[in-house]
Amino acid sequence: METLEPRHGMKAKTIKAILTKKIKQWSETIEDESVRKLVQKGTIVTGGCIASMLLGEDVNDFDVYLKDHETALAVAHYYVSKFKEKNGNPEFNLEVTDVDGRIKIGAKSAGVVSETSKDAPYSYFETGPDEKGTDYISTVMTNPDEIADVHEDTEIQSLAAPEEKQYRPVFLSSNAITLSDKIQIVLRFYGTPEEIHGNYDFTHCTNYYTSWDGALTLKPEALESLLSRELRYVGSKYPVCSVVRLRKFIARGWRINAGQVLKMAMQISELDLTNVAVLEDQLTGVDTAYFVQLIARMKEKDPERINTAYLIEIVDRLF
Q1: Measured between alpha carbons, how far is 265 from 4 in angstroms, rounded to an integer?
Q2: What is the pTM of this model?
Q3: Is 317 helix (H, G, I), strand (E, B) or coil?
Q4: Do 256 and 230 meet the contact criterion of CB atoms below 8 Å apart?
Q5: Would you say 117 and 127 are in contact if contact means Cβ atoms under 8 Å apart?
Q6: How far lies 139's CA from each of 143, 265, 310, in Å?
């Protein structure tokens, strides 16, 4: 099948080489042989990183998914163990839960912990403004100068301390494990690429790489969207998250027509966002500390007294 490749971006063979090398380097740092083999044969890379490379833009991080429950559970246990081994603060109280196939990392209070929160756990990400969390994540994740080895036009500088171990867990939440060197392991979903993309919202993010056969799959509809920089909403289980994500795409020069926004609005209209469980689930993947506080406030409130007016008041205070 003939593929389209955006101008000025990387070619498919270059992207494939980068991702092959990235997964190889990461997996080689996994000390447990059984977990290492599962990762080598069960990893899917998809989302914004491939889109960025096709457009010739900097890669913020590599979103990694696992192809089955066994692999996702093994990886979760491995990195929680490694994190506790290095950061051994008993107050973290971390554990991996597996209920009805839903794998989560449980952490005290806000549900997120980081390398820097050892002395004052949780408060950093609960109370810090967005940019603090963003700066921290970008600092601890940036280190893949191997990309420059593969493609001379791509240069990502290392900010991590050279003595620190590569691909170490630096940030844990209930839904994902963030490693240094730009790897983010998503636990919220696992399965085939088709199953994972059932939770995605925009077409341009659905290209993917699979580790078991070293194949890069570029979808014509995703490439069309990239070429035109037009957001095409395909429907999502998380339309609230999609609306919030619009901000970053528009800031980067993407366009979206009114029909796509209407599709999001129609899906949101079917949700009861005054239900704290529904709203918390809808904000999966929205990386802002303020939403953590919003959910915390709602959990403190009598559910019978939570309505749209109350939520608007809290949102105005927080933002």
Answers
A1: 32
A2: 0.76
A3: helix
A4: yes
A5: no
A6: 9, 35, 36
Amino acid identity at 98: D
Residue with tokens 């280190």: 143
Q: Tokens representing 139?
A: 């600092």
Phi/psi for 238 (5° steps) reads -130, 65
What phi and psi, each to the nearest 5 degrees, are found at residue 305? -100, 0
Q: What is the DSSP letter of 313?
A: H
Is the distance from CB of 202 to CB of 192 less than 8 angstroms? no
Q: Tell which residue, 161, 129, 126, 116, has the closest CA to residue 143.
A: 161
The structure tokens 């899906």 sit at 267
| Residue found by looking up tokens 């129609």 in the block | 266
C-alpha–C-alpha distance, residues 279 and 291, integer Å:
10
**How far apart, in Å, are the Cα atoms of 133 and each of 73, 171, 237, 280, 296?**
26, 10, 26, 19, 18
Measured CA to CA, the distance from residue 279 to residue 296 in angstroms comes to: 11
Taking only the tens of pLDDT, the chain with its 319 residues reads 444 444 467 899 999 999 999 999 999 999 999 999 999 999 999 999 999 999 998 898 999 999 999 999 999 999 999 988 877 655 557 889 999 999 988 765 445 555 655 443 332 232 333 344 344 334 433 433 333 333 333 322 233 344 568 999 988 887 889 999 999 999 988 999 999 998 889 999 999 999 999 999 999 999 999 999 999 999 888 899 899 989 989 998 999 999 999 999 999 999 999 999 999 888 876 656 678 788 888 999 898 889 999 999 988 988 8
Residue 105 host element (H or E): strand 102-106
What SS3 class is residue 96? strand
Q: Identify the helix (H) or strand (E) that includes residue 294.
A: helix 289-300
309 CB-near residues (< 8 Å, 6+ apart): none
Give the whole-angstrom CA distance, residue 47 versus residue 202.
9
